[in-house]
Write a structure and sequence with these properties.
The chain is α/β, with parallel strands linked by helices and 316 residues long. 47% of the residues lie in helices and 18% in strands. It is elongated and about 95 Å long. The structure holds uridine-5'-diphosphate and magnesium ion.
């Protein structure tokens, strides 16, 4: 029998877990020609999440868990999930039931037809603000315009990955991760499935706009160096203007012999160009920061325990 790993990153999800388990066990009853592994990654939750998962494991052997030593963020929880998943394929799902488990049979169907990466695309997104929907749409647009690799629109992390995709993703061990672009980057046979995104079942969203902006910047900088080229694009018209202005001033002062009233223009120019410079330094800093983080070459996460077994971090 083929094994399917369902990877669920969970951070302070005590309220959602009982509902989640109920929906998942219904699903596993219904899809009984596969073996299931439900792998929770407890991402340093400060509430009762870990204990609830442990209790679930006592009842149900299919529940597995990795407990992180602290909160590492969802992206890192996802790669840990891939590292620990034992299935022939892996499915990513949020703990808050925004991704309906009822869609999983359809994902499996396409996997059996030979697709390697079956991703769920949102038709609608209930329970999210207009502003969040709008910013996310703009983000996809920008990301797509900056790169040659096709990015799937309106797609979260809810997807099924064949073992070879799982292994491919495990080879990408950069520390500032953007899974969305990695899924596109590895390629392979992709298939889209449409669904309606539900509102969160319980608890609060862990996202705030700072986190989203961070993710957006990571997404762009991890994927393309084209922002570095902004400096080139800005500097070309800048130097052209400068050249024309220079000629104008030379002619005015030396041939027409008029004095130059330049202080206002000077102030404006100083403000303008220092603004541009600050922006460009910021962009360079972006990449420098990434180089700094990658050269440290640290492990992506530390595990406290896996299925009750304490991790010793022994060096093999
Ligand atoms: N999550 C996590 N670590 C974090 C933040 C979130 O593992 O630091 C998990 C969270 O438990 C949930 C999923 O990531 O299962 C998506 O989070 P959330 O629902 O808060 O995000 P949203 O759906 O609002 O984008
Ligand atoms: Mg959610």
């Amino acid at each position: 029998m083929k094994k399917i790993s369902i990877i669920i990153p969970a951070y302070n999800e005590e309220e959602a877990l009982p509902y989640l388990y109920e929906r998942l066990s219904k699903l596993m009853e219904q899809v009984n020609n596969y073996e299931f592994e439900i792998l929770f990654i407890n991402d340093g939750s400060k509430d009762n999440t870990l204990n609830i998962i442990k209790d679930l494991r006592k009842k149900d052997e299919r529940i597995c868990y990795v407990n992180f030593s602290r909160n590492f963020g969802k992206e890192i929880a996802m790669i840990a999930g891939l590292d620990y998943a034992k299935g022939d394929c892996a499915i990513f799902m949020d703990a808050d039931l925004q991704d309906p488990p009822e869609l999983i049979p359809e994902l499996i169907k396409y996997w059996e037809e030979g697709y390697d990466d079956v991703y769920a695309r949102r038709k609608t997104r209930a329970g999210e603000t207009f502003f969040k929907k709008f910013t996310s749409k703009m983000y996809y647009k920008v990301l797509q315009n900056l790169t040659r690799i096709e990015i799937q629109k309106d797609t979260g992390d809810f997807r099924l990955l064949d073992r070879r995709c799982v292994n491919a993703l495990r080879k990408l061990r950069e520390s500032q991760r953007c899974s969305k672009s990695m899924f596109s980057w590895i390629g392979y046979n992709k298939k889209e499935v449409l669904y309606d995104r539900d509102p969160r079942i319980a608890g609060k969203t862990k996202w705030n706009y700072k986190k989203l902006v961070d993710l957006a910047i990571d997404g762009i900088t991890s994927f393309t160096t084209s922002p570095l080229r902004i400096s080139t694009y800005i500097s070309i018209p800048t130097f052209l203007t400068l050249f024309v202005y220079f000629i104008y001033v030379i002619i005015k002062s030396n041939i027409i012999n008029e004095p130059i009233q330049a202080f206002q223009a000077t102030i404006l120019l100083i403000l303008f160009f220092s603004g541009i410079q600050i922006m460009l330094i910021g962009i360079i800093g972006e990449y420098l920061g990434r180089i700094f983080n990658e050269t440290k070459n640290r492990p992506l996460y530390f595990v406290d325990e896996y299925n009750g077994e304490k991790e010793t971090n022994e060096i093999k």
